[in-house]
Design goal:
7 helices; about 35% helix
Length: about 260
């Protein structure tokens, strides 16, 4: 069932999109204003990234989108019946095998055992972990654990994916490989992606669009449309245009800290 959250009134003129923030604000019970007048749309087939200073409310955007928290002003339109959410930590259950961890979301959706095993098997294959189904998280590297987290979110084929700095704890090479894997899944699954990161190069490499947020209270200060076509090859990171856009984003982010 669609979960359409409108904190002002039902608005038939809200722009279409998989995920729509329209003037969204968030004030916590202690009076801290985390977000102010956030407006942007993530369309199906878009990969939108948000960068900004620590504490500016980036992760709060995802919590609002997922329903883990609620806005205090504005309108947020999203169908929450089937959302993929990849956290900063892989958040795997240590007593479950890879297969059982990947099946978890389908299990919570009451998918029959045989079907969820098939769905999990396909997802595990998509993230390159075929053969590791019986392993436990402690037997996997950090990158492999994040692949399991991706597979678990893929099981229900969600039209919306939320990524909360999922590769931030990985070493640089593993992080780049995971960027490429995530984009491969984006190309095959055609979901609407909202990605949070502190890394400018990651934002440029992954995205169709990048929003820069100010220091708290978080506001969108600058938006960049990223011109590169998909699929994106690793060598793109050495392209002069990639460097130019990254430099502009870096300057905008420095200004956002002010």
């Amino acid at each position: 069932m669609s979960d359409m959250i409108d904190l002002t009134a039902v608005n038939q003129n809200v722009p279409s999109g998989a995920l729509v923030f329209d003037g969204v604000g968030k004030i916590f019970p202690d009076g801290t204003e985390a977000l102010q007048d956030i407006s942007f749309t993530v369309e199906p087939g878009e990969f939108v990234t948000v960068v900004g200073p620590s504490g500016c409310g980036k992760s709060t955007l995802l919590r609002l989108a997922s329903g883990l928290d609620h806005a205090t002003s504005g309108t947020l339109s999203v169908d929450r019946s089937n959302i993929g959410y990849v956290f900063q930590d892989a958040t795997l259950l240590p007593w479950r095998t890879v297969q059982d961890n990947v099946e978890l979301i389908a299990e919570l959706h009451n998918v029959p055992k045989g079907e969820r095993a098939e769905r999990a098997g396909r997802a595990i294959e998509k993230v390159g972990l075929a053969g590791f189904e019986k392993h436990h998280p402690r037997q996997l590297s950090g990158g492999m654990r994040m692949r399991v987290s991706l597979a678990r979110s893929l099981v229900m084929s969600p039209p919306i994916f939320l990524f909360d700095e999922p590769f931030g704890a990985l070493d640089e090479i593993t992080r780049e490989v995971m960027n490429e894997e995530a984009l491969r899944l984006f190309a095959s699954e055609k979901f609407a992606g909202l990605f949070i990161t502190h890394s400018i190069s990651e934002a440029v490499f992954m995205s169709t669009k990048v929003h820069v947020m100010s220091a708290r209270p978080g506001r969108i200060t600058t938006t960049y449309d990223i011109p590169f076509d998909y699929p994106r090859v690793p060598e793109l990171r050495f392209d002069p245009e990639f460097a130019r856009i990254s430099g502009e984003l870096s300057q905008a982010l420095r200004g956002a800290h002010a």
